[in-house]
Amino acid sequence: MVLLEEYRALREEVTQRVAARMQMIGFAGVVSAVLVVANKFTFDGPSVYVAVLLLLLAVVWLRGINLAIQRIGRHLRVVEARINALAVRAWGSSETVLTWETDIQTRRVHVRGVALRSGRLLGWIKS
Predict the structure, then answer these.
(1) Chain mean position to CA 47
(2) Is 71 inside any structural domain?
(3) Which residues contact 76 (CB under 8 A, 6 or more apart)?
């Protein structure tokens, strides 16, 4: 029962971090667009440079959030394996009970090309 509660809490933490990530992307995009438009897109004023700096900071923050989600995902896979092992012992069936995070990681391992490089850069895919 404790493992299932830990699993639920970790899944909730991932959901909250994803929501925060999306809010940050939206905020940085809107503020940058307003700053650029405020100067009518000239490089004379500081607005364009502040907008670019804001976007760079948002990307760095985004990478940190993505790496934190990856760490939680690694722990979730361990918890999934423990729960699945306990289910096999309890019910004698080889059917897995929890597979969400393990399935996501399995698909992530097969990503190639530009998606792999950008995923590594932004922290979506851990090498």
Answers:
(1) 30
(2) yes
(3) 7, 10, 11, 14, 100, 101
CB 30 within 8 A of CB 68: no
Q: Which helix (H) or strand (E) holds 92?
A: none
Other Cβ atoms less than 10 A from the Cβ of 126: the count is: 14
Cα–Cα separations (whole angstroms), residue 35 to 43, 61, 62, 106, 110: 12, 20, 20, 41, 39
Residue 76's H or E segment, with its range, is helix 47-91
Residue 62 lies in a domain: yes
Is-above-0.85 flag for pTM?
no
CA 85/CA 21 separation, integer angstroms: 33
Q: What is the pLDDT of residues 26-69, one digit of tens each?
A: 888 888 888 777 766 666 767 778 888 888 888 888 888 988 99
For residue 65, what are the domain limits? 2-122
Whether 127 is covered by a domain: the verdict is no
Indicate the number of domains in the chain: 1
> How far apart are alpha carbons 51 and 23 in whole angstroms?
17
